[in-house]
Design brief:
about 250 residues; alpha+beta; Glutaredoxin; five-stranded mixed β-sheet; 12 helices; 5 strands; elongated; disordered N terminus
Length: about 250
């Protein structure tokens, strides 16, 4: 029992940092004894390791969450008022939802219908779309096409094309995009001419820089009001977050 109490106390001191400050330097013999005591205690109580790992993970998650709030605040203008990103849903809504997406991302495709349902069922959410093609050349081509559609044909066409791209099953190539655009009656010669323009490049480059500033490495990524949400979220969880933001 004495050994257990002593080892527990030493582990507690190590966890709080007190050990490094208060314990006098040990001799080699004392250090060896200490290591043996700790090893024996951990073998007898392996759950302590999992408890320590859980505490560490919780602390890291809390630190990441605080850092993410700061990142959103520091980049609020680029997130919510960059002057070029598509704004859908209710432009005057009391909740702002920003979505970073890639048309070839499986989880983005899964989220698309749920985001649409959220916007329709709520009616008071402003939705901002950020093009973040990170899954190769086909993703970049799709984003260039979508942005060119927005610049040439406007927001309604962009939103329709975005849904079509999320539902698209085949390979994304210029001929397939041409067929898709013709299906919607778009001015494809004008759109194709715009796809490689500096104006389209600027939007994609600026959004990528914003993603880097926010330490975004995957899609979909959302920002709801002041909170950065990394990864896919089911509809029920998004609805709960909306209600939480409204207080």
């Amino acid at each position: 029992m004495k050994r257990l109490i002593t080892t527990t106390a030493l582990l507690g001191a190590l966890a709080t940092g007190a050990f490094a400050q208060d314990l006098t330097p040990m001799t080699e013999e004392e250090r060896a004894l200490f290591r043996a005591e700790v090893r024996a205690y951990l073998f007898e109580n392996p759950e302590v390791i999992m408890q320590a790992v859980e505490i560490l993970q919780n602390r890291e998650a809390e630190n990441q969450e605080r850092a993410d709030f700061d990142l959103v605040a520091q980049n609020s203008t680029s997130l919510f008022d960059d002057g070029y990103s598509f704004v859908g849903g209710n432009p005057d809504g009391d909740i702002v939802l920003v979505e970073f997406l890639d048309y070839r991302c499986g989880y983005c495709k899964r989220a698309h219908g749920e985001v649409a349902e959220l916007l329709e069922s709520d009616g008071n959410i402003k939705w901002i779309v950020k093009e973040l093609p990170i899954l190769g050349d086909a993703s970049v081509l799709a984003s260039r096409f979508a942005v060119a559609v927005k610049q040439v044909s406007g927001g309604d066409s962009y939103e329709a094309i975005g849904t079509a791209l999320m539902d698209f099953k085949g390979d994304i190539t210029l001929p397939s995009l041409r067929r898709l655009g013709n299906t919607f009656g778009l001015d494809m010669p004008a759109i194709e001419a715009r796809m490689d323009s500096d104006a389209v490049t600027a939007e994609i480059v600026q959004t990528r820089a914003l993603a880097d500033a926010l330490q975004i490495s995957g899609t979909p990524t959302f920002v709801m009001q002041d909170e950065l949400l990394r990864g896919y979220l089911p509809l029920e969880q998004m609805q709960a977050l909306v209600e939480d933001k409204r207080g």
